[in-house]
Fold Helix-turn-helix protein.
Amino acid sequence: MSQSPGPVVTRRRLGGELRRLRDGLGLKLEDVARNLDCSPSKISRLENGKGVPRWRDVRDMLDVYRVPEGDERERLLDWARTGRTPMWWSDYSDVLAPDMAMYVEYEWDAARIDAYEAHIVHGLLQTRDYARGVLRSAWGGTHSVAQIERLAEVRMRRQGALTADHGLTFRCVLDESTLYRVVESAEVLAHQVEHLIHIAEAEHVDVRVLPFSAGLVPASRESFAKLQFTAGIEHGIVYVERPGTASEFLADRNEVSLHDRRMAALVAASLSEDESVPLMKRALRRIGDA
């Protein structure tokens, strides 16, 4: 059973419809802004799904676009209400960076995610202790112990997207080095690899390993995730996480297609899940022997 679209996808759907209505009347952003006594940038942000819609603003825009009372008008106003609905990650605004908060929104609404991780296990697959270690490494110099713990809690709550009734299909290619790179301790790493073996049993989760024997695959230079949606974002988006710098969301069709090809190359070079699980078990034995 798939969930209903959440706020981020609903805002994108609403924005697309508002842009279609404006274009249909041949109006410029400046024309609408003048009618509503606001800035053109505000209209642009609403059309791009980046602004949080106020029901009154959407109502006034529909008046400008001469949308009569009826099903279409009510549907768009309902989307405006949904687009303002606070979600669980709103409770973590004190510790969650804006770009990561945006990613969590997209991740929660996605119908399918294809991800590649070059250095660490993907957040949706991490144990709490492993996540805590990753976060300490990234933020320990600037965040308190309590803040790190709250970020770890976010990571655990994100994994609710992997429950069978949420509707997400998840495929992740992990570089083999992630199975051996110690985070916190060998014991923490061992529990993490055990968790990967266990979660790979889920039908809607596909965990694959890019083995050392694959050599230098050009597409494996950086970690990224391609997110697809049932509606509202036609070609999907790509998230490229760059620790220490601003992460990037790519929505341009050419950029998305480029990363589709990169993912296809990574999947082709990786082991199947049936082949990956025995490799994980061998890694687990080596960790225990170390």
